Amino acid sequence: MNASNPPVIGIIGGGQLGRMMALEAPRLSLRCKVLDAGGAKAPCAGISEEGYVEGGLKDSEKLKELAKGCDVVTAEIEHISVPALEELESLGVNVQPPSSVFKTIQDKLVQKDHFAKAGVALPRYMDTPNVEAVKRAAEEFGLPLMLKSRKEGYDGRGNCVLKSIEDAQKAFDTVNNPGGVYAEGWVDFVDELAVMVVRSTTGESKCYPTVSAIQRDSVCRIVVAPARAPESSRLLAQLTAKSAIDSMPGATGVFGVELFICRDGSVLLNEVAPRPHNTGHYTQDACACSQFENHLRAVSGMELGGTDLIVGAAGMVNVLGTGDMEGTTAALKLAMSMERAAVHWYGKAPAKLGRKMGHINITADSPAEMEKDLKALMDAVGLTMEGEGKGGDVFPPPPLVGVIMGSDSDLPCMSAACSILKEFGVHFEVDIVSAHRTPVKMTEYAKEAAGRGVEVIIAGAGGAAHLPGMVASMTPLPVVGVPIKTSTLSGVDSLHSIVQMPRGIPVATVAIGNAQNAGLLAVRILASTRKGLREKMEAYQRGMKEVVEGKSERLKDIGYEKYVEGMGNKGGTVNV
Amino acid sequence: MNASNPPVIGIIGGGQLGRMMALEAPRLSLRCKVLDAGGAKAPCAGISEEGYVEGGLKDSEKLKELAKGCDVVTAEIEHISVPALEELESLGVNVQPPSSVFKTIQDKLVQKDHFAKAGVALPRYMDTPNVEAVKRAAEEFGLPLMLKSRKEGYDGRGNCVLKSIEDAQKAFDTVNNPGGVYAEGWVDFVDELAVMVVRSTTGESKCYPTVSAIQRDSVCRIVVAPARAPESSRLLAQLTAKSAIDSMPGATGVFGVELFICRDGSVLLNEVAPRPHNTGHYTQDACACSQFENHLRAVSGMELGGTDLIVGAAGMVNVLGTGDMEGTTAALKLAMSMERAAVHWYGKAPAKLGRKMGHINITADSPAEMEKDLKALMDAVGLTMEGEGKGGDVFPPPPLVGVIMGSDSDLPCMSAACSILKEFGVHFEVDIVSAHRTPVKMTEYAKEAAGRGVEVIIAGAGGAAHLPGMVASMTPLPVVGVPIKTSTLSGVDSLHSIVQMPRGIPVATVAIGNAQNAGLLAVRILASTRKGLREKMEAYQRGMKEVVEGKSERLKDIGYEKYVEGMGNKGGTVNV
């Protein structure tokens, strides 16, 4: 950083993205100057330290006025004039990312051709300059067919789904603009993912985590990090995104990369935006360095900041205009009462229907712990999971604990672990996984559990009880083993099978048949970094003390003879 | 929040604290207006959306100019004119906190009297209007004696330590100003703590975590959160701070409360500042709602945001001027290359010696994991722990794992757990704690471990091996039990003693004598929420696979007969 002579960053566009960049700049010793046509109403007006140029984003003269005194010029939007940028560059202005990147990206057909050539996995696509070409595309790719404007599209604008060939002309006319039209084969994706990539002037690039981007009417409404997708797909999405950005010579700054995840877990690149992106807003409150800071760092030639999550989970809820301020700000007011929500208002007015007015970021120690706040906020912005055909819970958070057992005959015993987890409000899953009868399923379970977000596995088995140890050998997670009591050796066989693991692979073994303790141990493990859960465990321990004190009191009250009578012949404990 | 008509906050003082408030305001739909004498050089200039009034902070007319159009007026500094504030209030201006709070706080003797009356624990103090009174104070409190200006002191300015009674006049003259002088009895504190308290207009108050504030020459240099102090003292500090703030009628906004922790763990209030404070800067990157946001929320009548840490540990390093920009920004440049550091530059120039120019916040999953970055940054700002008399490591981070055993004869076995923790870079402690020979020590250890920051306990014991279970019954932490092999029953006695715990109190038991697995289990537990450690565990597991593959290769190479020969008579494994 240069504190003696703070670099000046010119930003083309003074909307919410420019505003959020400008708010991060001062503490990095950077000064922002902004070009926007919105005048005093632009979200950036009054925010950028180095001033504000009022004018159109494609106006060559205004761009020169912006560039004056700037060390670098960047943009918060891709719909800008490439020739005007080229002119700036020819005058010696440092434009980051360079005009060539905007040229590749802003025409979606050129973008597709570029990425196809670079070997990036894409949906099938075809140039459709006229209705005849649309019909050929429908023949080749089948219906429905996605028609898109090559230029100027965003948030679903410029897209049209062709369902019947009779509507070809109408659909073509809907999306046709001077930029032209192209067609994409229908992708039967299960979810939309996104990855923010940041690339420095030295060519170093880093990925933020893969997130799930939940859209309604083609507008991003909710983002969940990490994505609710298999770990392998999340990784594949990052690799795809990184290779796409690295394929563009001289690409700098932050890029929003949208992807589809298909039923088989494969990933296809959808679109790239050369700027901070709605799917990266969560980074403001969930990563060491936000997408806005990293964009500023990258375009001004600084080192890149950390892109990992510093919390267990994060979510972002877009606040769209409802037509009036009262309705629009309802979710924001709710967020102000939440312990781990951050409100980001864009300073826009009026609150026109569907206009992006602000967003709310929430964080938690794990996806499961974020669920309550996320659902409440979704409710407040009028989002339900209806119409998704999955009973109102399309994006279930991953379980924190996996409870597995070798046989359903172990369930009566193992259910005690589940009851404890339920009592402590820990999200868990239960399954039957047999080491000897379903070895392949066991291997898959063990290998995938950590990637799915599971943090502890409880495994119960009896006799030659191999399940806990075998699972432990294929996961880095702590595995709690429950030796099931057997009729032949009273469970001593199970105990020795589970506890006597070789050096290198530990199993946390509890007493024979004591699945309750396995549940409690899992809670203690989760609680070691979770304050709320720790407090619940302490309360549970105080509760046990009080039960014994109650019994002691009763023993004093009624005497040992009556007490023992009340216990019957079982020699068990008596409820007081 | 009010988005239709964003409230305007007037801030008296446009230094770094005002600047950091102003940077948080836009996203909350608040607009800041600032009064400062610094002109274009003030850190707030160009940052506050609603404009800037140039003028002295005590200038009644300028204050009125500031208040014009403001919904509320607050301050970033306590050295302001109470009569001028009272005049504003009489004109109907909403001043938060009210002038009465500044009146109580800005004269430190009045502050002491107020808190003493409210029953807050304080060092002994006495009014010393003249040298005779100073001598009486020295007689009563002993030497050294702390003399302080009643008004206008900060960062040690206005303080003087009287070591010899002959210097009484000189010391008195040093700190005497129109506000007068008072004396404080010497406090032999072991550490300085601080707690930020925020209080709403409805009287709700919340504490941020207790932090350690490390000073040099009476200037705060480093803050570590949570404080490196016993949990009971941390809690006591929060209670003391909260009761102090709640004792001031109508107190609103954020308060910095500085405290001493004494050798016996008791806590004394030192001073209170009615504003965001240097010891609360870490909240920007480590809490859901920073001290600056919470101050804005509180004074403008909004609900309070979350004050808990959302990360495992945080640190703050002040960047003081070194006389030139190059030297001053060295630590900032280092911070830019760290994954989890955030740079906060105040936009000041020149970098005068000792001037507060900026700060760096760092975060980590645990105090131990923060140590490396913290030490590197301390080094970069020229801070060593020398002169503290504790061998350069005064503030050791708490261990993540406690390894305990019933007897030193268990150490050869238990050291295998330590070796694993060392290999994985996990900070741990080792001690001998016997259930039967040191039951009181065991109780203390078990009860205090969680509060000290320990996340997992490994306990080894042999025979009637009570240690793991007894410890588990007195801590909410996961306890890993290692059954030590015995000569009489080969450790089966130890195993059954450790594993067969009653319902309610689990011990994660590993194989007889297998302390290595206990270490690995502790790592797996810690790794469940730590990405870096998880990756190390996966690498370790791959390593084990490779060792076996190597052996398999060699077996194929040399044949089983030669292989078995090479193993000698022990039947053990052979190194390849």
Automatic annotation (TrEMBL), chains A, B:
Pathway: Purine metabolism; IMP biosynthesis via de novo pathway; 5-amino-1-(5-phospho-D-ribosyl)imidazole-4-carboxylate from 5-amino-1-(5-phospho-D-ribosyl)imidazole (carboxylase route): step 1/1. InterPro entries: Ade2_fungi/plant, ATP-grasp, ATP-grasp_carboxylate-amine, ATP_grasp_subdomain_1, PreATP-grasp_dom_sf, PurE_ClassI, PurE_dom, PurK. It is an enzyme of class 4 (lyase). GO terms for biological process: 'de novo' IMP biosynthetic process. It catalyses: 5-amino-1-(5-phospho-D-ribosyl)imidazole-4-carboxylate + H(+) = 5-amino-1-(5-phospho-beta-D-ribosyl)imidazole + CO2. Keywords: ATP-binding, Decarboxylase, Lyase, Nucleotide-binding, Purine biosynthesis. The keyword ATP-binding applies. Pfam families: AIRC, ATP-grasp, PurK_C, RS_preATP-grasp-like. One of its GO terms (molecular function) is metal ion binding. Coiled coil: none annotated. Residues 112-300 form the ATP-grasp domain. In the C-terminal section; belongs to the AIR carboxylase family. Class I subfamily. This is phosphoribosylaminoimidazole carboxylase.
